Amino acid sequence: MKNWYREDWLFRIEVVQVGKRNKPEECRIGFEPGDTFECRYGTPAGFCPTSFLKIFPALEVVRCNGDLRNLGGRGPHEITFTCPEGVVLFRVTGEQTGGVPLG
Length: 103
Prior knowledge:
By secondary structure, the protein is an alpha+beta fold. The chain contains one helix and four strands. Strands 2-1-4-3 form a four-stranded antiparallel beta sheet, covered by helices on one side.
């Protein structure tokens, strides 16, 4: 695979809480508080695919210079969300990195 475009946003997804007891056994994937993932466009390795489906629209909002506060976020590039099963609470933050086309 050849990357022909340098993405201008880096996203960090952090596990904030897992279930009521913060135990990995409460999550089907086994996430634990403090687990962190980074991505630019694609799904991060080892990340829950159903959770990524839920978060992807928020990443697109940031990429289009939108403000996540309009969706209940804590800042223009930060939001928390619960996985589709209602077990894991994630914090997502975006950082602009100044991408330019490659090649």
